[in-house]
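## Example record

The block below lists the input lines for one assembly entry, exactly as stored, with component labels intact.
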Amino acid sequence: MEICSEEAVKYVWEGAIPLQIHLHESEVTTLPPPAPVLVLGYRIGYLPLLIPQIKPHFDSTLPPGVDTVWFDYKGVPLKWYIPTGVLFDLLCPEPERPWNLTVHFRGYPGELLTPCDGEEAVKWSFINSLKEAAYIINGNCKSIMNMSQADQYELWQSVLNGTLENYSRVVPRLKLGVLREDCKMRSISRSQQVTGETNDSLPNQTGRIPVRLYIRNVEDIDDLEGIGALDSWEKISYINRPVENHDEGGLFTLRRAMESLLPELFGPSSPSPGESKTKDEAGGEDGDSETAGGAQDAAAGEPPEAAQQETHTAQMARIRLIRVQGIVPGWDTPFAWVVNNLSHPDFFLHVCVLVSASQGSH
Amino acid sequence: MAGPHKWDGTISGLDFCEAARTFSQRWKEVNPTLTHWVWIPRPMISGSAIGEGVGYLSLENMCHQRSTEDLVVSECCTADEEQSVDCATLAQNDNRGIHFYDYHILYNFSYNVPVLYFRGYQYDGQPLPLERVKEDFPPHSSSILKESRWTFLTTEDHPFLRRPWHMLHPCGTRDWMKLLFSSSHLSKSEAVRQYLPSWLSVVGQVVGFNLPLAIHEGLSSSPVTNWMQPS
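Predicted C-alpha cells for the full assembly:
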C-alpha cells in the first residue's frame, strides 16, 4: 500500500473552513453596524493570519485605541496557536458552515490567551513546534536551527499562503523524512518511499512520532448535533506526547497508536502497550509506557489485576469520535499513512478526540 | 537511564514521578516550617478519573518582596530560616512591593526533561506580565539568559491548567544537565534522586528561586555542590 499519497496531501492543503466573522457588538460605533465578512480559513493555517483580510471591513467602525485582535466562538476565546482546522474539528462536532466566529479588536483576555501581536507571534509559535517535532524525530533541533534565512522565509511564506508546492521544495532540507510503514524508521524522501529504496534511512532517528491530542469530554448522547457548545477550555485535555511503535509485528494501525496514548479508553481485549514493559527497562525512550499511568504501573507485573483494572476504566469512558484534518479515519488505517498524509506543516499530527463518560461512572 | 558516561541528560516520565516524590519529601525534611512542594495528580482527561499517576509539583504563594530603595531582591518566607518574616504583616505595611509567585514543575514528554512554569501576581491577585516578572529576577539572571543559549523565557498555555503561564523553555535542558552530571559517578537511583534538586538549582538562578543548600547535603557527591558557585 502506498504510504505517501500526493493526492491526499494536496486535499489537506486545499482544505479550508468557510468562516463568517462578526465584529463584537461592543466594538461597533457606527450605524448601521457592519455586515459580517466571509473569509476562507485554511485548515493548516491560523486565525490571526486572516486579520489583514478581516480588518479592512471593520476599520471604520472601531472605537479609538490600539488593536489587540482575538476571536471567540460562542463566547469562548479561541487559542490562536492551534491550527484553524483543528479548532473547527474540536469545537464543532457537527460541522457548522459557515463557521460563525466573533472578532474583537479590544480587550484582549490575557488571563485566558497567551499574547499574540499578529503574524510574528504565529510564525514564532510555528517554528517552535517544528523544532519540537525535529527534536522528537531526530533527537535534536539542528536541522531547523541551521536553516538558511532564505529557506526559513520560503517555509513560512508557504504556510502563510497555503502553497504546497513551495513547502514541498523546502521540506527535504528539514531532514525530517517520511515515516515508513513500520512506524519505526523514516526514509529521506517521499519519492524514495514510493520506489521502496531501503538504504536511505535518516541517521540518528529516535523512532518517536510527534502527535498532539485534543480531547473533549462530551455528553453521552447519540446525536452529535445535540452536543452543547464548549464553554471553557478547562473541559479540553491537551496531550502532547510522541507515539512510539513497540509492537513486535503486525501492522501498526491508527488504533494501536491511539491505544498507546490512551490505553484506558480501549477495551480489555487488546493488551495495553504498557503492560508488557517492566520498570527496569534500560534506555531513555520508555516515555510512553508511563501513559499506562503510574498508578497502574504497580499492577503491570500482575496480568490478572491489570486486566481487571483495565476493564473497570474501559467502562468509564468511550471514544465517540476521532477527527484528523476533518476526516474520521478508519481504525485500521496504517498509522504511517495517517502521519505522512494528514500531519500539519509543523510535522505534528493533530488529533481531535471526543470522549463520553459512560453511564454509571463517577 | 544508562550508566553516567552514556547518560544524555534526560529523565523518563516514571523516573520524574519518583524524583518528584523524593524531592518534595526532602524539601519537607529540610524546611519543615516553609511552604511545601505538593504533588498535584491530574487525570489525563479532565472531568474523569482516567489516567491517574500523571501530575506535577506545585509550590504556591511564595512571597517576594522588592526593596524600593536599592532594588535589592530579598525573599521572605523562603530559604533563610532566620528570616521568618510574617508576610501578612509586610503586606499591610507596603502593598506595592509584594509580589507572589506560584511555581509548577511539569514533565515534558517531547524533551524528556522537567520544565518550570511560573506566574507572578500582586497582593490583590492581579497577574504580572512577563516584563514585570523579569524585574523581580536577580541581577545576574538576564546575563545568564543572554549568554547561554540553553533556555529562554516564554509565555505558553500551562498544559494542565490551559491558561497562560510563563516558562523556561526545555529545549536546552538535556545538554546542561548532562554537563552538570558529567563529573559525577552516580548509580541510576542516585541520579534520579539528585535530578530535581540539581535541575532546580540551575533554573532557579534565572527566576530568583533559591534552594536551601541543605537540600543537597546528605546526597553523596551532589553535582551541584561540586559545580555551583555561591549565589
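Chain A touches chain B through 51 residues (CB under 8 Å). Chain A has twelve helices and 13 strands.
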